[in-house]
Specification:
CATH topology: Purple Acid Phosphatase, chain A, domain 2
CATH class: Alpha Beta
CATH architecture: 4-Layer Sandwich
Strand content: 15-25%
Low-confidence stretches: none
Number of domains: 1
Distance between the termini: 32 Å
CATH superfamily: Metallo-dependent phosphatases
Number of helices: 8
Helix content: 25-40%
Structural class: alpha/beta
Mean pLDDT: 97
Bound molecules: zinc ion
Largest sheet: 6 strands, mixed
Length: 256
């Protein structure tokens, strides 16, 4: 991919958030987009969100929610599981879908790999130790586990882009962590060091900031963007759908 490019993750069927992020990506003239999965789950608009990813992303990997949609929701809590069933009802081709968009979209989701590499860059939903399920948090989080880094960093060539935690962070190979702020959104990447770059979440941020989050890779630096979107509209859609619990709409207001 040609730098600079955008890296998005954890869209979670939030169309308003994704549209706002794509507009921001376009306004910055970024040509290419890598998507780190969890296209579906939790949110009300899996079809349009999957179609936009298919149309706009240069490359994409599967997240655990995408995997659960195609396979089964292993280890999912009831809250997340109900939304996966709703998503399957919406997206799975029926006998009368002999061909067309529904089948093509399903085939796209079914065909997503779990890891992609390009030179010394890796793209994964969770981590290179467990591409779908591993939570790799920074040191601000109660689940911070520097021990896990000893197993993950040997698999990283230089930079591994990841999502899954919904919490933007850069973790260096010596376990030093950095978090973006509005007045300090850019982090220079030193030569000779390795990094895990968690790009945060477009559709369900959990770092206390409700704005959609994504990252721009500049080759020798990573720059974060926070993009406001119409949270109330997404929450209203969630409230109108029985299979999606209201608290999945409420948490979007808090970014938690
Ligand atoms: Zn997710």
């Amino acid at each position: 991919m040609k730098t600079p490019f955008a890296v998005i993750s954890d869209l979670h069927a939030n169309l308003e958030a994704l549209e706002a992020v794509l507009a921001d990506i376009d306004a910055q003239g970024l040509g290419e987009i890598a998507c780190l999965g969890d296209i579906v789950g939790y949110g009300p608009d899996p079809g349009p969100v999957a179609d936009l990813v298919r149309e706009r992303a240069t490359k994409a990997v599967a997240g655990n929610h995408d995997w659960a949609l195609i396979n089964r929701p292993l280890g999912f809590n009831p809250l997340a599981k109900d939304v996966i069933e709703y998503t399957r009802d919406m997206l799975e081709p029926k006998f009368y879908h002999l061909f067309g968009e529904t089948r093509e979209r399903w085939a796209y989701l079914e065909g997503l790999p779990t890891v992609l590499e390009e030179g010394d860059l890796a793209f994964v939903h969770a981590s290179l130790r467990d591409p779908l399920m591993d939570y790799c948090f920074g040191d601000r989080h109660p689940m911070w586990n520097p021990k896990q880094l000893e197993e993950i960093f040997p698999k990283v060539k230089r930079i591994c882009f990841a999502g899954h935690t919904h919490y933007p962070a850069v973790i260096r190979d010596d376990a030093v962590c950095w978090y973006p702020k509005d007045d300090a959104p850019r982090f220079p990447l030193e030569a000779g060091r390795k990094y895990i770059v968690n790009v945060g979440s477009v559709g369900q941020p959990r770092d206390g900031d409700p704005r959609a989050c994504y990252a721009v890779f500049e080759g020798d630096a990573v720059r974060y963007r926070r993009v406001p979107y119409d949270v109330e509209r997404t929450r209203d859609k969630i409230i109108a759908i029985d299979a999606i619990e209201v608290r999945l709409g409420d948490r979007l207001r808090e970014g938690k």
